[in-house]
Structure formats: C-alpha cells, structure tokens
C-alpha cells in the first residue's frame, strides 16, 4: 500500500494520542485504590474554601514522554481563630462614668477660665478640683481604650493608664481636703482671713498638691509595680499590695481629718448663731441647713471612697474581680457629684452659666457675694 505524506502524519498523530490516552488510563487505574481510601476517610468538598486544587507534576520525569498531570488537592492549614475579648459591663459603666465626669468638669473649667471675676482663692481650689476630676474621667476612658483597643500586654500602656488614674484621684481627694481647710480657716479667722489668705499662697498649696500626686502616679513606672511578680499585686494591677495599703491608709487619715474639720466648722457656726441674738431665729435655721449640707457632703464622700479603701486593705489580686468593680464604681462616682457640690451650687458660677447659655440671669438667683465659709 502506498501512503502519501499527509496520510502518514495523520496515522502517527493518531498513534501518539492513543498512547497518551492509554497512559492516562493506566495511571488512573493505579491510583484508584489510594484515591478511594482517601475519599472514604476524609471526603473533600470541591466547594470548600479551605481546599485549593492545583496540577501536580512529577519532577523526575524529564523524558520526552507525555507528562502525566493529575488534579490533586492541597489542604491549606486551618485558619487560626482570633480570640475576641468580651467587653465587660463593668468596664462599660466605668467608661460611661468617665465620659460624664469629663463633660461636667470641662464645663466648670470653661466657666472659671472665661470669667475674670472668678479668681478668688476659693475658685482656684474649685478649678484645681475640676482639673483633677477631668483627668480622672479621661483616665477611665483611656483605660477602656487600652484594655479593648490596644495591646494591654505592653508595660508602657498599663503603667501610663494606672499612673494617670492614681494621680488624678489622689489630686481629687487632696483638693477636697484643701477646700475643707479653706472653709474652716474662713470661719476660724473670719476677720483676718482675706488679709492673710492670698492668691499666691493658694497657688503654692495647689502646686504642692499636684507635685505630690504626680509623684504617687510615677511610682509604678519607677519600679514599684507587680508586673514581674503577680503574687505581690493588689486588686488594681500593677499596683503592689503594699502601695495599695499605703494609699488606702492615707485616704482614711484624710477622711478622719475632714471629719474633724467639719465638726469644728459646725461648732463655730453654732457659736456664731448664739452670739447674734437679734437674728437668732434666722441664723438658727440657716445654721441647721448648713450643718445638714455638711453632713450630706461628708456622708457622700465617705460612701463613695470608704468601701474601696477598706477593700484595698483586706483584698489582693486573688479575690474575685467583681468585688473590685463593685467598689471602684462608687469611688469614681464621687467625681460625678463633686462639680454639683462645689461648683454648680455656687451662685457666682450659676450666674456665669446663665449668662453663657441664655444671656440673662434669673431673678430668683442670689447675687450676694459668696464666701468660702458658705456651704
């Protein structure tokens, strides 16, 4: 038989394709056993996103024979589940409290700053208290941010948050004590108070308070912390147990001093009431109201801070965290009521607020100059 060149090319092409088909069939038959065992043990879902498919090739086959390519699955390692930290309702409550504290005290600072007539020593102390409470509120907000939005395992973040809270709340307590001392001196030295008590002396006292509180806040950053030894931690990590006890005892001493000063204020007020016989009835009513107000202020201060101070003395980091939250939250609420007690009740500040908000002053607002002895 005589074949032309075209027919021979078709014939050999057909033989080549037939050889490829037979090779693929043989390879499929050889791998059918292992494939069936694989499919029976762990079936693969072609629509599973964790399984990707690629063409596998034997690198040892470098001959001119057709390369057998098989579709083999490449199992990707499982994705690591990201642990989402659950937000504690207590932390939310502290953050909301911090926001309220910041708004209230920012308003007080703005009124004092933009009212030139409010520059008496009493208003300097009120402004210092407002700054301390404002920083305390910002510290609570930053603590929430650092806990849930920033890597809290970084030592700098933890020390910054705790240092700010210690400094701010310590300054708040000491400024309340300074205001109490100011009220006592204004009654005890009523005739010479305004001559002896100067603005410069008030600024010196405020500077002393802030230097002391900033030093307390820097102690954890200077090495007095429990980051390397959790067994020495207090209920507020990274403050050590000894430092927490020292702060709590200091607060108890401050509270005892405030009680003594308020008791002396009440005695002086009643003595003045007895000396003024003409206005006996009016003064008696006014004095009784003032004593009731002082008692309410002292009880509110004690109710806010005493539970946390006592718990800091007896507890440590092994105690349930819910007890810590239950005592910390009332302590922070003290900074919520401070602007109401010491600022918004003041007629001069009320007048400035009315002028800033609506440009007028209510007729029932007392315009009598308020002294430090007024409660």
TrEMBL record:
InterPro entries per the UniProt record, alphabetical: GPCR_Rhodpsn, GPCR_Rhodpsn_7TM, GPR_3/6/12_orphan
A Pfam family it matches: 7tm_1
Superkingdom in the source lineage: Eukaryota
GO MF annotations in UniProt: G protein-coupled receptor activity
Keywords carried by this UniProt record: Cell membrane, G-protein coupled receptor, Glycoprotein, Lipoprotein, Membrane, Palmitate, Phosphoprotein, Receptor, Transducer, Transmembrane, Transmembrane helix
Membrane spanning residue stretches: 90-115, 122-150, 156-179, 200-224, 244-270, 291-310, 322-344
Family: Belongs to the G-protein coupled receptor 1 family.
The protein's name: G-protein coupled receptor 12
Taxonomic source organism: Xyrichtys novacula
């Amino acid at each position: 038989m005589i074949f032309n060149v075209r027919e021979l090319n078709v014939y050999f092409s057909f033989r080549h394709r037939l050889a490829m088909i037979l090779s693929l069939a043989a390879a499929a038959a050889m791998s059918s056993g292992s494939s069936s065992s694989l499919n029976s043990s762990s079936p693969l879902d072609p629509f599973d996103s964790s399984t990707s498919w690629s063409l596998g090739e034997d690198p040892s086959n470098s001959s001119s024979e057709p390369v057998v390519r098989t579709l083999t699955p490449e199992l990707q390692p499982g994705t690591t589940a990201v642990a989402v930290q659950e937000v504690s309702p207590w932390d939310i409550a502290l953050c909301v409290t911090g926001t309220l504290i910041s708004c209230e005290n920012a308003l007080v600072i703005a009124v004092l700053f933009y009212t030139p007539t409010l520059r008496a020593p009493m208003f300097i102390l009120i402004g210092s208290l407002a700054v301390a409470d404002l920083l305390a509120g910002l510290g609570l907000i930053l603590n929430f941010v650092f806990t849930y939005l920033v890597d809290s395992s970084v030592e700098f973040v933890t020390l910054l948050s705790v240092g700010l809270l210690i400094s701010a709340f310590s300054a708040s307590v000491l400024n309340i004590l300074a205001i109490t001392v100011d009220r006592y001196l204004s009654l005890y030295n009523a005739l010479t108070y305004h001559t002896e008590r100067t603005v410069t002396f008030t600024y010196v006292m405020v500077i002393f308070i802030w230097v002391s509180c900033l030093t307390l806040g820097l102690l954890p950053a200077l090495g007095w912390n429990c980051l390397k030894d959790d067994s020495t931690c207090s209920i507020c990590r990274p403050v050590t147990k000894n430092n927490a006890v020292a702060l709590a005892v200091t607060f108890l001493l401050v509270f005892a001093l405030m009680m003594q000063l308020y008791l002396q204020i009440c005695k002086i007020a009643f003595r003045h009431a007895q000396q003024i016989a003409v206005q006996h009835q009016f003064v008696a009513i006014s004095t009784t109201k003032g004593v009731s107000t002082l008692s309410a202020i002292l009880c509110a201060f004690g109710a806010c801070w005493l539970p946390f101070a006592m718990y800091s003395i007896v507890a440590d980091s092994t105690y349930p965290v819910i007890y810590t939250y239950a005592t910390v939250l009332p302590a922070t609420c003290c900074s919520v009521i401070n602007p109401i007690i010491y600022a918004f009740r003041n007629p001069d500040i009320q007048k400035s607020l009315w002028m800033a908000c609506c440009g007028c002053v209510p007729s029932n607002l007392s315009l009598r100059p308020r002294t430090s002895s007024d409660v």
